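Input (structure):
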């Protein structure tokens, strides 16, 4: 199973990614988590990524693509994977297509969580209190929403045209959202 989980910052991707990945027995690959791990270890990748992350901007495609390619090449991702937070730009879509095609597989589905924008900001401000993420200040939250709308929202139409888009209402309780995702994915054929 090869899945993408998409949605604006604060839509609950990270939480749902873990449930969905466990259910299908594939690793959840979160580019944000990999960047944050590199930042906390002070690696060259982390040092480069941090200045973009702190500003709410995207890390350059070449850097991100290279990192994802290496992660997907690891043995645990051979049977499949769930990508959380990648692709986020049209250039990343093309790059991911190449990576998957190379292995002779296909993308099974792209799940998009939809949440209204006021709820998103409230969730992120709450996360700032509980998790203390450096990029959860109000200005950066706002910038991340803008960047999502400009650069990532257009990907929804790309995947819709391919017939693999699954839109799920991300509002409400975590368990209810998980149940909606499973119900929607039950409809699609697994590879
Ligand atoms: P996330 O945890 O998914 O919200 O990601 C946190 C930050 O990591 C983002 O605001 C970006 O700065 C960076 N990032 C994560 N994934 C990507 C990506 N696919 N392309 C570029 N930057 C990314």
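Output (sequence):
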């Amino acid at each position: 199973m090869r899945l993408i989980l998409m949605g604006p910052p604060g839509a609950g991707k990270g939480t749902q990614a873990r449930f969905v990945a466990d259910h299908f027995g594939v690793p959840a690959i979160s580019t944000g988590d990999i960047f944050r791990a590199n930042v906390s270890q002070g690696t060259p990748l982390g040092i480069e990524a941090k200045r973009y992350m702190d500003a709410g901007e995207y890390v350059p495609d070449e850097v991100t693509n290279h990192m994802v390619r290496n992660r997907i090449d690891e043995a645990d991702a051979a049977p499949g994977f769930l990508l959380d937070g990648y692709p986020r730009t049209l250039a990343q879509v093309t790059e991911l297509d190449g990576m998957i095609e190379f292995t002779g597989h296909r993308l099974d589905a792209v799940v998009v969580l939809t949440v209204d924008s006021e709820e998103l900001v409230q969730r992120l401000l709450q996360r700032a209190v509980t998790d203390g993420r450096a990029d959860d200040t109000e200005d950066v939250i706002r910038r991340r929403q803008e960047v999502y709308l400009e650069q990532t929202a257009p990907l929804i139409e790309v995947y819709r045209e391919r017939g693999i888009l699954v839109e799920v209402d991300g509002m409400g309780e975590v368990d209810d959202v998980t149940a909606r995702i499973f119900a929607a994915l039950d409809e699609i054929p697994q590879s």
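Notes: The CA atoms of residues 55 and 117 lie 20 Å apart. The first strand starts at residue 2 and ends at 6.
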